[in-house]
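Worked Example 4.2. Read the sequence first, then its structure tokens.
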Amino acid sequence: MDKDLKKVVVLLAHPNMENSQANKTLFDVIKDMEEVAVFNLYEMPSEDLLNMDAWSRIISHATVLIYQFPFYWMSAPSLLKQWQDRIFTYLAKTPAVAGKPLLVATTTGSEFDAYRSGGRNRFTVDELLRPYQAGAVHAGMVWQTPFVVYGMGTPEAEKNIAQAADLYKKRVSAFISKEASEDNW
């Protein structure tokens, strides 16, 4: 796993990537970027997924951490939670993550309007992602405005994915171009 010492570490948590539309497209636009290491948690052997020493080196070397996942039942798929419980809990108490940006990149089945106080889902995505934000703040990380691709279960899905792919690549590129010592993320 040490070959993956890159500036941007993406933890991809999707249990069915071969049937994914949005997350696969987002993955495809960043996977070959020179300073990006993508770890698909669902394709990793459990000994790597929970290897504290390897993750400590990877995250210590990185300048930004991205959680990428489909929004399942208002949260991430379970392996990201397992990684957080076993690895991030430890790293949050170390300088490995302090001061680094944390970005959540997620996709939703519902359209944007469903995620508001009067909408079908009753809450905004920002509200539903508060546990991730609280974890980042607790660990001394810099919470980033989430990157959300809405409407994967709507007729607008293809259009939304196409627009999001370019924006995601630009957002990740911006992290790469920033200096590691920069405090203004």
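Now turn to a second chain, presented in exactly the same format:
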Amino acid sequence: MYSGAITVKDVWEDWKLYERLVARLMANQLSTEFCVTPNASILGAITGIKRQIDVLIETRHDTDNTRRIIVDAKRRKRKIDVNDVEAFRGMMEDVAATHGYLVCPHGHTPAAEKRAQTAVSIRLLPLGRLEDFDPRTWPRCTRPKCKNGRVFWDGYPEVSLALVAPDGTPTRLAFVHSVGKCDRCKAFHVSCATCRQILCVPEGGYDDIGHQCSCRLPWFWLTSVEEDERGAQSAELHLVMGTGEIRTATRRSISTA
């Protein structure tokens, strides 16, 4: 558990803790095909305004928003009702989400379940799960302008390197990384399991030559902004190998408004 001194800036509101817990559980349960962004922001296609998304789930390896999933974590003392479902379905339509999860601690009404149908899943997450959950144990965001952000890890890409021993025996070494985003400023971060360095990989321009950790092995990290067929933009973190191979390690939709 966290052992540092607690300051006023470190105090987390209950609703924020609940959102981060939902994001953590979602990331733990999903396949590596998907990436998770807590506290995301998407421009509504219908309303033209930024919509705050508690948890955003998207495909990891390509700019494909046709399978976007959003999660609304409602930490309330009452049950989810039909009005909550109606409002959530409206948000889903605005951000082009194909499915949504309403997560709550106290259940839902029969009318809410009927209105949810197949597009929305309602899940129960008791508040007792918060007792052993402390996001202050997450690494601090290393972006200089970010205050109090914490890094949310959502992927663990592995790089294999072919080597030849002095006796001529071929071998392979595996290097594991953690990739994720700041839960406030959304900056991409990479943690190397070998040298233990945590890199902040900013969204660079055309002159960005990439970022390496202290290992200085033959790969580096680079970001780009991509568009899907409808013009929706995503910030993407890429692993660039010395062989020229490029892998998309994680991504997040961005709002341009």
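Notes for the reader: The CA atoms of residues 162 and 183 lie 36 Å apart. The chain has a mean pLDDT of 89.
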